[in-house]
Amino acid sequence: MTHKPPKIVHIIIGLNVGGAELMLKRLVLNSQAKSEFKHEVISLTDLGVIGVDLKKAGIPVYTLNMKSAFSILRVYFCLKKILKQIKPDVVQTWMYHADFIGGMAAKSVGIKNIIWGIRTTDVTQGASQLTVALRNICARLSYSIPSKIVCAAYAAKDLHGKIGYDVTKMVVIPNGFELDKLIATDEDRKFLRKELDLSDTDIVIGSVGRFNEVKNQKLFVEIAAVLVKDFPSLKFMMVGRDNDKNNKTLMGWIQGYDLEDNFRLLGQRVNVSKCLKAMDIFLLHSKTEGFPNVLGEAMAVGVIAVSTNAGDVACLIDQEFIGSDLKELQVIINKILNNEIYTKDVILNNKKNIEENFSMNSVVSKFESLYQDC
Questions:
Q1: Long-range contacts of 245-250 (CB under 8 A, 24+ apart)
Q2: Measured distance CA(254)–CA(171) in Å, rounded
Q3: C-alpha pair distances (Å), 286 with each of 122, 176, 291, 370
Q4: Cβ of 125: how many Cβ atoms within 10 Å?
Q5: Residue 126: per-residue pLDDT
């Protein structure tokens, strides 16, 4: 008799490029390759870039085309119908909207093994009132709907426990990195720098992340304005959706400090590791994070990393590279620029931390153990 692998259905609000979406893709593709579990994905909205990648890899992807709050009921009943057809062994939901809609739908059709996913820490900073309200509703429902709740960060677990989530169901599984794909060469660095009209000797401080209030690109521009007073030839690279010259808000900040010649705005790029390789210092400037993927990617590529104290940053880099505000971050970067820190040892230790504690293999194994427990 042929053994059928257990079926895991993932439900997520959408499949455009983002930290949660990329983590879902890595988890699904790496786990599916082992053939111990079968994965399918449901997007409550559209296919997105990640959905296209998943379908190309042979993963079934369903889209429900939710446009607004007014279409929630239609999407809910469509989701119930799909779940009845698929008959999953486990439903895994990603983030509040999917936790709520996906969790309710799965429970209503008799699915007992439901895993919720918490990816953020403090959504009161920059998120909509609807999202904050939904989080509070999920806190109450956490006692009755999910069998497990996966938090991407210890900071996320602690905060959600304080606001009323069922802590007895919570486990922390950090993001994992496909280290074999996080490769960029010195040639990649030279090629991109040439494309951006940067010399080999230019010192580049970089940022990666979609343009968003929570990601706090304004702080990055403000730090640049302070640093160029002592280092006028510094260059600043911004990567991520809407970080381009069409963004009037961003351009207003840059022009307001007369920094147009110092900035390179790349927008969304497919191969982020090559962009990271072109940097000398990576700066994470978010107000809040869960587990900051891009910080780990910068470390894996071999870039010295500096960050605000957001989410689980302290699990990744040493405290001396974490600043709570503009002034502290400026002091840290000044030390690096003035060669007061021997960065080669720091870079090696950072890479070792990622390799030993956050490889994709170890993270996939943790999720698969969770599926087995369910």
A1: 247/211, 249/211, 250/211, 250/217, 250/221
A2: 42
A3: 11, 20, 11, 30
A4: 14
A5: 62
Which tens digits make up the pLDDT trace of 214-238?
899 999 999 999 999 999 999 999 9
The arithmetic mean of pLDDT across residues 175-184, rounded, is 87
| pLDDT tens digit sequence for 282-327 | 999 999 888 888 999 999 999 999 999 988 899 899 999 999 999 9
pTM of the model: 0.79
Crossing angle, helix 360-373 and helix 19-34, to 10 degrees? 80
Q: Which residue bears the tokens 């509703």?
A: 137
Domains, the chain, in order of start with CATH, read: 7-176+359-373 (3.40.50.2000), 186-357 (3.40.50.2000)
CB atoms within 10 A of CB 305: 27
| Rounded distance between C-alpha atoms, residue 169 and residue 99, angstroms | 14
C-alpha angle 125-128-130 in degrees, rounded to nearest 5: 130
DSSP state letters, 256-288:
HTT-GGGEEEEES-S-HHHHHHT-SEEEE--S-
- Pairing state between β 281-284 and 90-94: unpaired
pLDDT in tens, 25-52: 999 999 999 999 999 999 999 999 999 9
Question: What burial class does residue 259 get, using C-beta atoms within 10 Å of its C-beta: 0-12 exposed, 13-18 middle, 19+ buried?
Answer: middle
